Amino acid sequence: MLTQYDFLDRFAAAADLGFRGVDIQFPYDLPADKIAAKAAAAGVEVVLHNLPQGKVDPKDPERSEMGIAALPGRSAEFRDGARRALHYSRDMGNRRVNILAGIVPQAAAPENVWRTLRDNVAFAAELFAADGLTVMVEPVNGRDRPGFALQTSEDAVRLINAVGAPNLKIQFDLYHRQIMQGDLIPGLERHLPEIAHIQFADTPGRHQPGTGEINFLSVFKAIDRLGYDGWVGAEYLPTGRLEDSLDWVRWAEA
Is 138 a catalytic site residue? Predict the structure, then answer.
């Protein structure tokens, strides 16, 4: 969202639209202190960012890697990226970071993939725990990202239980959950203790609420009823101008 603005101008644009916090996917092209200064000037909180994603194709972002935590042979790179992400968190003040597990090479042995993912996530959880920060893992649907290492809420819970770190939680994306499993409200009810952040978009299309099949009024009411007190982040592709896609704000406040 807000991609019509230069990156450093998006903070003021978000504030102008009434947002109090922002998610950042990958902040690493710019110095963290510059990002922090722009967020502070706009009066918005940086809520979270992702750990580095791996190899980036600037000409075709869809060909860029979507995380490397589960990729055998890349652990040193992952851990260097985790340390870099910690420095960004310290400068920007966000209390949560998200780990993208990555798309598993077809030739990789499943037990090696699982061991690599578990060990890398455990390293990151311990690293960020020293600063009191929460580390999250995000299930991503296998239709948009075939071969992604974590695709369901249960995949994430299995990993959390295997690592056993109290600061390891789920980034619960309603769009990915709807595609893979549906049952959004039962999923929220079942996994609420493990959820540290919620994101949303409608499906199909990953557009704003009201363009697809999800009953967001019911989902937003359930989030409030359950007593969730974290951030809920809009992560969708507006069908037109972003400013014209915000009817869901009225539903969320109902």
Answer: yes
